[in-house]
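Hi R.,

Here are the chain sequences for the assembly we discussed:
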Amino acid sequence: MDSGSPGGTLRSYLKRGEDFIDEILRHNEFLRLRVVQLESQLFMDNTPVPPPAAASELRVVFEQLHKEHDQIQRRFDNVAVETEAHKERYAQIEEENDRLVNLFVAGHQLYSTLELSDAVQIIVEILLNFVGAGRFAILILDEPSGELQAIESYGVDRDAVPVMPKDVEPMLACFSTGKPEVSEAVSEDWDVNQPLVCIPLKLGKEVIGAVTIYSYLEQKRELTPIDLELFSLLGDRGGAVLESARLFSSSDGGPRSVQAFIKLMKNEGGHG
Amino acid sequence: MDELSALIVEDSPTMRQLLVFALSRVRGLSVAEADDGLDALKKLAAMAFDIIITDINMPIMDGLKLVKRVRSDERYADIPIVIITTEGGAEDRKRALALGANAYITKPIRAPQVIKTVKELLKI
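And here is the predicted structure of the full complex:
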């Protein structure tokens, strides 16, 4: 039967119909697979797939958010840097407060008395409690002999503190510069003939005595800027305080001369 | 914050002034002073304190005796005690802590160290 016959025409239509159905089935299969893929993806992302127009808008929003995120991150970084700077500044202010409190209290206490023994005691307390000196002595210059003699000591027997001529080291440097001679060493070894620190006690420009430090308390590891300022404070004010107290006490029957002063203080006993 | 109070027990006026200055920087903390252990006990009987800071070497009643007396009185059992001393050795620290002190500060005194210790004990 040829295709021109009614039967042939029918078969042709049936064949085309079969092809069409096959194509639809293939397409349907493709779509079904695609639906499964998309559903699977949606399930994984848990995100509804927006229509194409909405996606474009979302992309714009996403870019804006990304920019904002970068800006916030930059601000956050800046704040972190500022916070570090503030912390550093706070530590500096704390250190400055500590320094001022120490200097204020030391200065205030130095001028709080005209009693000779109290004045000496305050110098001892500043050296012990504020500086952390473990062994030290306060010496006064006997001008006629040019020698310094200990009137008070701590951590070392006062009689063990040698008489020191003012024109021999370590006193020579101290007397010539009028400034504290300080060794940075904070070791446990000590020698009463070689003080680590020698602070001239001044009355105006005149040096009338000295403080010698031989060692520090066990827990003191290093000298700090506050210690150096306390040394300067003691040097600049200590001499005047001791001399004022001596003069005041002399008006009330106390020692009228430096020699009498040294003798009196020696008789009162030290902390050694 | 409720007002807290500290009792400084120290025979040296210089040290007392330093400690008062240091602790006056702690917000909400008022500071009272006693010359020695006996004076401290009188002040403790007269008013309540939240913390005691005491020196060890004092006349009349030293810091270690004060710690012992305070800890043996149940009214003061919970008051934190800070010992201040020149001695940095482990044995001395052990002795003070065994008697009931809560913390230990060694000389030379630095205000930030005192403030930090007091704040930690008062949890402020």
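The beta strands of chain B are 4-9, 29-34, 51-55, 81-85, 103-106. Residues 111-122 of chain B form the longest helix (12 residues).

Let me know if anything looks off.

Best,
T.
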